[in-house]
Amino acid sequence: MFSLPGSRFKHASAYSWCLVAIAQLGLSAGVQAAFNVTDFEVDPAHATLGNPHEVASPSFSNFQITLFGTFDVTKCYQVTIKREGGAPCGSANSSGTDTADVFADHLVADISPNAAADFKAATDWQIEIAERAAGCTGGSSVQTFPDSPGEPYLRIRGCNNHCLLSGTTITANSDDDDDCGGQVRLCVQRSGGGTLGSGNLEYDWDLDGDGVCGVCSGGSNNRKKCGEPSDCPGGICFGGRGFDDLTTNTGDPGCLPDQPCCITVSIFSTQTVGVKVRDKGTNAPCTECKTIAVNDDDDDDDDCDDDDDGCCDDNLFCNGLETCHPSLGCKPGTPPNCNDGVPCTIDSCNEATDTCVHTPNDALCSNGLFCDGAEVCHPTLGCQPGTPPNCDDGNACTTDACTQAGGCTHTSISCNDGNPCTTDTCSPTTGCVFTNNNNSCSDGNACTTGDVCSGGACVGGPALTCNDGNVCTTDACNPATGCVFTNNNNACTDGNACTTGDACSAGACVGGPALVCNDGNVCTTDSCDPVSGCKFPNNSNPCDDGSACTTGDVCVGGTCTGGPPPNCDDGNICTTDACNPATGCTHTNNAVACNDGNACTNGDVCSGGACGGAPVSCDDGNVCTTDSCNPATGCQYANNANPCNDDHVCTSGDACSGGTCQGTPIPGCIECSTVSQCNDGNVCTADTCELGKCVFTNNMATCTDGNACTTSDVCSGGLCVGGPPLNCSDGNVCTDDSCNPASGCVHVNNVAACNDGNACTTNDTCSNGVCVGGPPPMCNDGNQCTDDTCDAVMGCVFTNNNVLCNDGNACTTNDTCSGGACVGGPPPNCNDGNGCTDDSCNPLTGCVHANNSDPCNDGNACTANDTCAGGSCDGAPVSCDDGNVCTNDSCVPASGCQYVNNSNPCDDSHVCTSPDVCTGGVCAGTPIAGCTECTMVSQCDDGNVCTTDTCQGGKCVYTNNTAPCSDGNACTTGDVCSGGACVSGAPPNCDDGNVCTDDGCDSTIGCTHINNTNPCSDGNACTTGDACSGGVCLGGPPPVCNDANGCTDDTCNPASGCVFTNNTSPCSDGNACTTNDVCSLGMCVGGPPPVCNDGNVCTDDFCDQTLGCRTVNNSAPCNDGNACKTVDICSGGVCVGSGPLNCNDGKVCTDDFCDPLSGCYHANNSGSCNDGNACTTNDTCAGGLCGGAPVSCDDGNVCTDDSCNPVAGCQYANNVSPCDDGHACTSGDVCAGGVCGGTPIAGCIECTMASQCNDGNVCTTDTCPLDVCVFTNNTVPCSDGNACTTGDTCSGGACVGGPAPNCDDGNICTTDSCDPMTGCVYSNNTNPCSDGDACTTGDVCSGGACVSGSPVVCNDGNLCTTDTCDPSTGCVFTNNNAPCSDGNACTSSDACSGGVCVGGPAPNCVDGNVCTDDSCDPLLGCRNVNNASPCNDGNACTTNDTCAGGACAGGAPLVCDDGILCTTDTCSPTTGCVFTNNNNPCSDGNACTTGDSCSGGVCVGGPPLTCDDANVCTDDSCDPLLGCRYGNNTKPCNDGNACTTTDVCSVGTCLGGPPPLCDDGNICTDDSCHPATSCVFTNNNSPCSDGDPCTTGDACAGGMCVGGPQRNCDDGDHCTQDSCTGGGCVHENTTCGACCLATGNCVDSVTMSDCLGFPGENQFRGVGFLCAGDADNNDIDDACDLGGRIPTVSEWGLVILTLLLLTGAKVYFCTRRQAA
C-alpha cells in the first residue's frame, strides 16, 4: 500500500468505496521535504467506484485527485496521471493533466483523460507532480510517484472489467484500522434480455465452500451478524444478513442487458467464502458461485503481508516457490511437476541438481505374453513392443502359429477342396494338389441326367422333359428339385355363360364372379341362363314413379305408371295446401286475417300455421290485485294477498289485504335518520345508519381477551379473539418454555441434549439451565501415519507423522509414513539369471520368475526356431521336404537334411498324359490319344452357338446348351438351343387390340396390321354413327339433349349420353308470399315467406298472397325508449309513454337522477360526512360510502404495542418483544416496562481497537470487528520441531507439520529415508538398474553404482533384415534387399524390401476375348474363364447380345414399332430400324377436324366440323377432345311473351323476366297485360277525387275523374258569411261594428249592456264583436274599457259566461287590442 509516515488514504464515509494504491512511494528526503506530501484522495463526487480496491467509472470523463501536505501558494503545481508500462488494453500515451488549485495544506486537480476508453480499460497508473514558477512558466524537476519504473503508484479498474463472472476472484479488505471497513463491491454481468428492475436480482453466501448458499455443513446458525454464535468455520459474520438487491454500477435502479449490476456488502472473516447471485422471487437455485478471499491484514508493517515474496523463500527447489499472501502471510509453493507422462519411467525430484529425474523401468512394460516378444521402456517414447518369434517351419502342408502356452505350433492343413471331380493330395513344397478325374457325379442340376466328371468339373447330361398338358399349370424345371408344375392364374373358360372373368386357380379353371343381370328396372324380372346368359321379362309389380304426387303406382309394359293424386287438404285456414312431386303434400303457412275465438287477443292473423292475436293488456298497476283475462269475457281484477312493499324499512312480511299493502313491524329493528341513534355499546361492532335503519357491522378492531398468553388480540365475529400466542422462547435449549394464561411466560430447567461449544466433548447434556460437556470423542482414525489429538474448536485432529510402516506391497522395502500415508521404499532384486524366465515382482507375494518363450539355441541341426518353453530351450523339427515326390527326404542331427531319388507314381501336371512315373528324380507320363490340352477357352471354339465350349482342367470340353438362338423365321419367337441345334419357338402375338386393324404375320418382316373401315365405338356416348378410319375409331355427330325444362341443366356425358340435371336456378312460383323461389328436383319451389315485420311493435304485420306484405295499427304495450316513463302504450302506430319514475335512494353519499336511456342512476359524490369511527379523520364520501383516513397511532417505541379503539382513539400498551439495546455483548434483548434491555454475553469482550484483543497465540488472528473481540484461527507459517516436516502451518489454532521433505537423491542405487532428528539418510542397495548400455541385460546396483550384466541376443529370424546391436538403443534390425520368394505364383523376381519379401511384376493373363474373365490364381497362375457378359454380335437387328461358351450370341430381335401410324416400320441388319412415311387415313386427335390423313410421317387434320345448333341461348364451339359443345349462356333474348321484360337465357332456354310496369297512374283505368300486345288500360267508374274540395261524390267516367254536386258550406251562424274556395268552406265574420246574434243585424253603437249580451233574446250563441279601437291609448279596447281595467268575471255575468262555455259558442274578449 502507498504510504508516507503517518499517512492515510482519505475517503468519505458516506460513500461505499475505497481507493487502494499498491506500491510504496519511496521519496528521497530532499524531494519529500520540498513537497511534504502527506496524503491524497479521489473525490467520490467525481468518480464512481466498482471494487473497493479500484477507482472505477463507466466513462472516466472526469475525476478529482487531492494531495494533502504543505505547499507554496505562490507557485504552480501540475498534476498528471498516465499509464504505467506497456499497452495491453489501449494506447500507451493515455493520460490526463491539470494545473492544480493550490492551497496551504493541499492541492486539488481535476483530471480529464485524453483517451477515456483506454483509461477505463487500463490497470496500472502513476501520478506525476511538477513544480512550476508563478503563472506556471518555467519549471523544476518532476516528481513521479513511485520513483522507480514498474512500480505502479495507483491501480484503477472499472466494474465493467471485474464483474464477478465465473472463475473471477476479488479481494475484500477486512482490516482493523477503519480505512475501508469490510466492504466488498460485488458486480454481476447480466447477458441479454430485457431490463430487470431494482430488486430483481439478489445475492447469498456460500459460507463453507460446499456450493450450497446460506447454510454451513453440520449446522444451521448461518449468515449471523457479528456478535452472534455461528457454526461456520472461522466464525464468519456479516455487517448485514440475508439477501440484498443488486443495482447497476451507475447507481440507477434496474439491471440493464449486458451491463453489470453492483452492490456494496460488508464481510468480516478470515475464511474464504463464496457468493452466488440469482433472479429474485423465482426460488431458483443460486448460480455462478464466486470466491472472495478475505484480506484480514492491513497494518502497514514490514512482514510478509506486504506482498514481499522474498521473505517466504526457503531456497528448496522440490517444494516449489513460496509466496506472500496479503492476508494469509507465507503460502507454500507449488512443487514442480516431475511427471513426464511416460508410464514406464520412475519420476522424482533431485534437490541437489534442482532438476526432475526420469528413470526407465522395463519391468513396467511386460505384458506377460510370449508371442509378441519382450517389451522394453524407452525414456521418452515409453513402452515399446518386442520382436515376435518366427514360427515358420518351411512346410507348405502345415499351418504355423504361436501360442502363449505352448510356443510355436505346426498343424497339418486340410487339402479337401470339396470337389468330387478332383483327387486331393499335398506337396510339402507347393502345398495342396488337386488332380482331375472322370467319376460319376451330380452337377447339382435336377434338370439334367447322366452327369459325369470332366476336366475337374461335373458336366450335366441330357435335359429332363417336364410337360403335364394342363393349361392351368406353368411347366418348368427347377435345377434344385426337378420338374415343377406351378399353378398359374391365366384366363380360361369354365363353360358357364353366367360367370365372368374365369381364371385358373389351384391348377384348375374356376368360374369368376357371377354375371350381373340387373338392368336397373324394377319393372323387369332379371335372371341368368347358364347357356344363353341374362334375361329381362316385364312384370306388373308395385313400383314408384318418382313423383310424390301420385299413389298406387304399378308396372305396365316394363315402365312404372303413376296412380291417382293424394288428398293434401289439412283443414287449416292458416296453411296453403299443394303437392310437390319431389316431397309430396305441402302445407305452407300463410298470414291471412282470422279469428282465434279468444277475447284476450286482438288483431288476430295467421302466423306459423296458427291463428292468433296480440294479447290484451289487463295490468291496472296495482300489485294487490291479480290481473287476468278470461278468453270468454275479457279482463278480470281480483284482490290478492301477495307479498308487497309498504315503504317502511322496519316492517316485514308486507302483504296485500283488501287491495292495499300492509306490513308487520320487525322486532329489534330501529329506523333512524342519523348514526347517533345507533350506538350498541360493543367495541367489536361498527354502528351505522344505512337506508333508514341501524346496522351493527362486526369489525377487526384491537381489543383484549383477558389471556396473558395471547398478543395482538383483535375483534372477530363481533367478539374479542386472542391473537398469536406469546413467544416465550428464551433462546436457551436447557429450559422448557411455556405460558400461564394468568401470569405469562414460564421457563423450567431441563436435562435435554445440547452443545457446549467444545468439539472435544460428546453427548453434552443440560444441567441447572446450562449445557455441560460429556465424555471426550474417540479420535483414533486407525492410521499408523497420523498422530491423533483433539482441538476444542475443530474436534479430532489427525496430524501426519514420518514413522517406519508397512505399505502392504511385497515389492517395496523400507516403507515410511509421508503425508498421512505409508509410502513404499525401493523395490527388491528379483533377477534369477535364467534367460528363459521373465523376472518381476508381485505386490502380494514378492519376486516372480515366470517362464518365457524367448528365442534361444539348443545345439541340434535338426531343429530350428529354438524357443524357451517351461524354463528351458527347445527347437521345432526342421522340415527336409524338398517338395519333390520323386525323392525320399530325411535329416541327420549332425549334418542336416538328406535327399535320395525313387520310382514312385507321380503327376507330371499334363492332363493328356497317363500313367506318370518318377525316373531319375523327375516325373514323366504317356500322351492320351484324342485329348487336346488348352490354356484358354479361345482354343476350344467349335463354331456352334448351341454348344458351350470350355477349357476345363487344361483340356477342351463341348457341352450342349439351351441358349437363345434364331431359326430365321420372323413368325416364331423364343427360339432356343436343344440337343446342340436351334429349335423354333411359339408364334408371336400379333393382336394389337385395335378393332380398326386386320392383324397377320409375314415370315420375313413379322406381324402386320392393315387399317379397315368397320363400324366401331369411340367410347363417347355423345357421338353417334362411329366408324373406323385410318386405323382409329372416329365419332359421329352429337345427339340432341334439350328437355325444354328451365329447372334442368341439359348436357351430354361421354360415358352415359344425355343428362338432364336438376338445377337450383331462380324461378317464380306465382305466390306473392314466397321469396327467392328456386328450382328443386326439376320443379320451381316457393322460397321462404317474405319478412313482413316492419320492426314496429305498434303494427300487426301479415302477408296477402296477391298483394304481399300488409300492416295494421294496434294498441299493444310497448317501450318508448325512455326509462324515466313507467307506462308505455301503442297509439296511432307509435309508442307513447306516461308517468315519471321515482329515483330517490335516501343515501347522503349519492346524487340521484334519471337517465332516459338507463333509468335511475345514483352517482357517488365526495361530500363531507361522519362515519362515527374515532379511528378515522377527515371523513368524506367515497364510492357511495362514508369513511375517513386512519389515524396514525405509532409512537416510535418498539416496546409498546400501538392500536386504535374506534370509540376511545389511540391506545399504547407496553410489550415484551425482542429488541436491540445497541450493545454488541448483550443477547436476548427484550422489552420490559416500555424499555429495551439485554443480558450480558459470557466471555464476550467489547473493544474499540484490535490491540485490546491479543490472546498471545501465533495461530490465532485477533481482531475487533463491530466492537467485539474475535479470535480467528489462521494458517500462518510456524514450526512443529520435526526435521522430517516442511512448510509447517497453523491449523485449528495450533501448529501442524507440513509435508515430508524430499529425500530422493536421484540415485536408484541408494535407499533414501528421513530421521526426525537429523533429516535425510541415503543407504547403498543391490537393486536392479541400468548401466546405460542397451546391449547388456541384468544390470544390478553394487557399492552405490550400477554394474553391467550379460550381452543381449539380437536374432529376429527374418531373412530380410541384418541383425546388430547399438549400445545406445539396443538391437538394430536393418532392412536388406536380398532375393526371396513371396509364395505367390502371380509374381516374379521377388526381392526383400522394407524388411519383408515383396513380389515382382505380375504375368500378362489377358487373352483379348470379351467373353472370358482373365485373372491369375496365386497357386495356379493365369486363368481365362468363360463368362456371360453383354457383347455385340454385329447384327443391328438383335438386342441384349450375351456371351455364351466363350463367344458372343445374338439376343432377341429388335422391336422397330415407333408407335406412329404414319410410318411403315422395318429393320436392316446393318443400320437397324427403318421408319418410312406413308399416306394412310388417320386421326389427328382433334375431334374438330374431319377426313384426316397421313402426310410427311404425321397425321394432318381435314376440314373443320360444323357445330351451329341455331339456338341463341347456347354458345356453340368445338372441343378438340369431345367435338361439338353447346354451352348454355345468359344472353338477352325474347321469350315471345309481351308481358315479360328483360328476358334472358337460362340453362339453354329463354326465360321471361319481370312483368312490365302497366300502372298508368290513373285511378280511372284498370291496368293489365296481354301476352300478345303488352299493357292494356280499361276505363272504369270507380269513386275518385277531382281535386276540388268544393265538389262531392266525384266518380270516374271516360277514363277521367268527374266532380259531383257543390259542397254546402252554411254553418248556421247569422254573423258569418259562408262560401267555398280552393281550400274548402270559409266562414268570415261580418264587417259591422257589432252583430246581433239573434238576427244577424249589425248594431251601430255598443254599450256595456251590448257587450254583455242582448237581454230578452233566448237564441244567444256567443259570437262576440269586433274591437272598437283604443282611442284613449290605454292598451284596453274602448268597447271593454271600464276605467282602464279589464272587466272581472262577475262584471261579465258569471251565468252568461258559463252558458257560453257550455254551449261551445265563440267568445271574444277585447283586451290590449288583442282578441282573446
Put the structure in a nutshell.
The protein is an all-beta fold and 1716 residues long.
Would you mind describing this structure in some detail?
With 1716 residues, the protein is mostly beta strands. It is 2% helix and 36% strand. The strands form 58 sheets. Strands 3, 4, 7, 8 and 9 form a five-stranded antiparallel sheet that branches.
List the helices and strands and how they pair.
Elements lengths: L28 H7 L1 E6 L20 E7 L6 E8 L11 E5 L1 E2 L3 E6 L4 H6 L2 E9 L9 E4 L8 E2 L13 E5 L9 E8 L10 E6 L30 E2 L8 E2 L10 E10 L3 E8 L7 E9 L27 E3 L3 E3 L13 E6 L4 E6 L15 E3 L3 E3 L13 E6 L3 E6 L9 E6 L3 E6 L15 E3 L2 E3 L13 E6 L3 E6 L15 E3 L2 E3 L16 E3 L3 E3 L18 E3 L2 E3 L13 E6 L3 E6 L11 E7 L2 E6 L9 E6 L3 E6 L11 E7 L2 E6 L19 E6 L2 E6 L15 E3 L2 E3 L13 E6 L3 E6 L15 E3 L2 E3 L13 E6 L3 E6 L15 E3 L2 E3 L13 E6 L3 E6 L11 E7 L2 E6 L9 E6 L3 E6 L11 E7 L2 E6 L19 E6 L2 E6 L15 E3 L2 E3 L13 E6 L3 E6 L15 E3 L2 E3 L13 E6 L3 E6 L15 E3 L2 E3 L13 E6 ...
Parallel strand pairs: 10-17
Antiparallel strand pairs: 1-2, 2-6, 3-4, 3-7, 5-6, 7-8, 7-9, 11-15, 12-16, 13-15, 14-15, 16-17, 18-19, 20-21, 22-23, 24-25, 26-27, 28-29, 30-31, 32-33, 34-35, 36-37, 38-39, 40-41, 42-43, 44-45, 46-47, 48-49, 50-51, 52-53, 54-55, 56-57, 58-59, 60-61, 62-63, 64-65, 66-67, 68-69, 70-71, 72-73, ...
What percent of residues are in strands? Answer: 35-45%
Mean pLDDT score: 75
> Unreliable stretches, pLDDT < 50, 5 or more residues?
1-61, 84-94, 115-124, 145-201, 217-228, 234-273, 278-308, 1643-1671, 1673-1716
Q: Round the Cα radius of gyration to an integer and report it.
A: 66 Å
Share of helix, binned:
under 10%
Biggest sheet features: 5 strands, antiparallel
Task: Kindly report how far apart the N and C termini lie.
Answer: 118 Å
Number of strands: 125
* Overall morphology: flat
Global structural class: mainly beta
Total number of helical segments? 5
